[in-house]
Amino acid sequence: MTAPYLELRGVGQSFGKYTAVAGIDLSVTRGEFVTLIGHSGCGKSTLLNLIAGLGKPTAGSIELDGKPISGPGADRGMVFQNHSLLPWLSVYANVYEAVDAVFPGRRPQEKQVKRDRVERLLRVVGLWEHRDKRPGELSGGMRQRTAVARAFAIVPRVLLLDEPFGALDALTRTSLQDELINLWSFDQATETVLMVTHDIDEAIYLSDRIVVMTNGPRATVREVVQVPLARPRERHAMLHTAAYADLKEHLLELLAERAVVGAA
Hints:
By secondary structure, the chain is an alpha/beta fold. The protein has a domain at 1-75 and 191-264: 3-Layer(aba) Sandwich (Rossmann fold). The chain has helices spanning 44-52, 91-102, 108-124, 140-153, 170-186, 200-206, 235-238, 242-263; strands at residues 6-15, 18-28, 33-37, 59-64, 67-68, 76-79, 158-162, 192-196, 209-213, 221-226. The chain has a 6-stranded mixed β-sheet, sandwiched between helices.
């Protein structure tokens, strides 16, 4: 049996008298794409922040590759719904600054390696021709492309995505989903991905497993669902398979059940 790469044991997080999540047990294998879904307020982003090291759980433990997570680290890259780019820097500079912070070598050959990496990633996401523009000159989709490229640029072992495409229109969203998969395939140093989303179709298309959360407060894992769809996936063909239809129906039933329980 493969040992867990990322493991959450009995994780809980309270803010004063309010308990956001409790008793979270989750194991993620190296190389998996795992998505968290659930209703608003169920603690999905809270869990992602704890894995990122942006806070410490008030109960339980989180380990990555057998070592406790005690704070932020370059082994984890995070992309938020808000792109969080530096507005005074160009697309190129936003990505290069991230690489330079993690790999601070100053020798000419080291600088060239960093420049080459930035160029490769910007070409993969289709932004090389826009490299000199600042975030304010870009569309929402292009800003998110930059944010995703920046996250991959630091060569994280784990990529954390907090609704990265939630504010985008449907066409841009599907395009960026494909680009995310292309980047993940292109940059094999980043093996494992955890994502938060409200979009069931997005979760099915991208994931190996889907974690369905119960309603908060004291949210926990309701069910972990395997996605029985082989990779690579072709979106149009996937939508017409029985496996996709059955999985989507099951996820909708789980979410509907939790909504009824939460309203009771």
